[in-house]
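Human: I would love a firmer grasp of how sequence relates to backbone shape in proteins. Take your time, and here it is.
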Amino acid sequence: MAVDRMDPQFLAELNERLFVHYTQGAWRAPLGYRLLNLRPAGVARWGGIICGDARDAARALAGVAAGGTADTAAMAQAWVQASAGAADIRAVEGRRERYNAAAVPLDAALAPLGGETAPNTLTPVPDGPAILLSAADTPLDEIVALLIAQAARGVLWKPAPRAAASAHYTMRALAPAAQGRLALVQGDHQTGAELARHGPVIWASDAPPPKGMALLRTQ
């Protein structure tokens, strides 16, 4: 099956695309106002992101909670189509990644991500949306596997600023089949700390999570 490469128009429009968040099943202007400029090497016109705040978190989580039934098989198929373009975006972000898109599982269990979790509260996997916080160097296909596997419960994703473009591209591919069960809020560490107050966290990073953060119990 042919896969989609990155549309050059997508890169040309990043200044506008990165401004919006994906919430309540649509791309919407953020409620926050804190601007964070992004300057990847070799990219002249990249723009910036608006860091989400408590209002963005509340709106996004309300939308995820009210979403429909995610079609995880269709989400996986959408990733097959989008993975080559996503790799192109990741290269612009400074990460060379190759994806075996067909191998993305539909039922990936939560795996231990990050460093020591002893200082953190480990919670059982409850009902309701989870907060996914991902680092810039976390492979995108690992993040996609988590988004698909956890879509039934609902996921609010806050990527690292240096991965904002690939996150937008990925959400554009997965969101239609997710039926409102995914949301994307852009932001920095301050945004991540605010989001972590609203639900258990899936910590997608090799770095240790902040002390006191409530993490979903892993297998």
Remarks:
- The helical segments are 8-12, 14-17, 54-65, 72-92, 140-149, 164-178, 189-196.
- Strands lie at 21-23, 26-28, 34-37, 48-51, 121-123, 130-134, 155-159, 182-184, 201-204, 214-216.
